[in-house]
Amino acid sequence: MPDFTKEVKAFAPATVANVGCGFDVLGFAIHGLGDTVTAVLSDKPGVRITRITGDGGRLPVETEKNTAGLAVQALLNKTGKMDETGIELSIEKKMPLGSGLGSSAASSVAAVVAVNALLGEPFSKNELLPFAVEGELAASGTAHADNVAAALFGGFILVKNHQPPDVISLHTPDKLHCTLIHPGIEIQTKNSRMILKKQVSLEKAVTQWGNVGALIAGLYTEDYDLIGRSLHDEIIEPVRSLLIPGFDRMKAAAMDAGALGCSISGSGPSVFALSTSKSEAETIGRKMGDVLDEIGLEFDIHISKINTQGAAVEVIRNV
User: Fold this and answer.
1) Topology of 177-305 in CATH?
2) Of the candidates 52, 51, 13, the residue with the CA atom closest to the CA atom of residue 29
3) What is the pTM of this model?
4) Which of 225, 71, 215, 195 minimizes the C-alpha distance to 139?
5) Interior CA angle at 310 toward 89 and 145, to 5°?
6) Catalytic site residues?
7) CATH 3.10.20.90 correct for 6-171+307-318
8) For the chain, where do the domains classified as CATH 3.30.230.10 start and end?
9) Are 266 and 28 in contact (CB under 8 A)?
10) Which residue(s) pair with 34 in the sheet?
């Protein structure tokens, strides 16, 4: 019989997906923001979500509709012990919903990391990725891996393939700092995907491919000028930026303040800028904030180096 008093708490960080030119294939993790999931063994088989905090009562507690619940169900199905294993999940949201910072991914990843530790780690970290990807279905309707992989592994990641997920961890230059500004509006991932064009010109596609390749080369060579010249999105940003008040002015302010590049974080409305020092990142944040102040829109600013650790177990407790 399992020890029903065992409890594991895990944390997964917020993430920036797309990184300008890399729609659905690039992402990186940050420090500070993220989600915590506590998993406890139960004598009643199945997965149940007992509590969600920090979401304003908006997220579903039904397992089949919740990103963390779906991810853990996928994990238990793989063990072949769904009918005999009971798991209760408590989710603590530590970032805004609909922010473009990978909120759903953080919940999925924290949940599978916690449950894997609870069950004695039957799966490696790499093997947890497909389970967490399954959780994304609840948030966006598609099982994409850019936010999930960045939250799980940390650092910069490249998604070569989504189904099945094939992810490559990239080099992370030590000087890189991220400025994130989150305007006080919400954009749902499903809605932001619906407005995207289904076809793009060959000319724009070729430019985009070149930027993705050059950005990856810049990361490995720590060529910050090349990183900056590559953070340009020909395809997604021109469409999604229309949903973000003051985006063009914020981007111009960030570049004038010394940013390497600036674009939309995930599906928005958060906007990120990369720079090479904390002081630069803070100055960039102030200048971007000035734009939203003039518009009269509330906002939050977050400064972080790139989080290269990713998700991790915080507490294992036997009462």
Assistant:
1) Alpha-Beta Plaits (3.30.70)
2) 13
3) 0.93
4) 71
5) 80
6) 136, 189
7) no
8) 6-171+307-318
9) no
10) 13, 94
